[in-house]
Amino acid sequence: MIAYPDTSFLCALYVPQSTSNAAVGHYQSMKEPLCVSAFLLGEFRQSVRFQIFRHSRDSAQGYARKVGLEALTKLQSNLDDGALMVTPAEWADVFAIAERISSKHTMGGGHRFIDILHVATALHLGAIEFLSCDANQRKLAAAEGLKVRP
What we know:
two-stranded parallel ribbon; mainly alpha; Rossmann fold; globular
């Protein structure tokens, strides 16, 4: 495995936003399927559904229902055609790595546990690159020796 994404990268791939051009460009240049974990897929799907909920309460926030449902459909299509590949993880190992990362970086960098879990998963799976559009998470991944893209 070369690259492992976080949720911000998947959001940029599937929902138009300011970081989409960079994410799509990098994704299209990849020579192997994009590896994802069940955890990442769960967080992405939940995030999209929550953004649809937010939009239903205030149209200035979140994603319109059509946009969100299209994102979920595109994601599933990419899973079905093998462009995204679910890679199993040993979650006890991921949590041990996450604890090490948290104790080393959180008090100085203000990292959320869910972001630490993404970096820990990438390390556990042997990724070389970490794909993220989140500035703080990019700093964390770089501090852990991952090449940050896009």
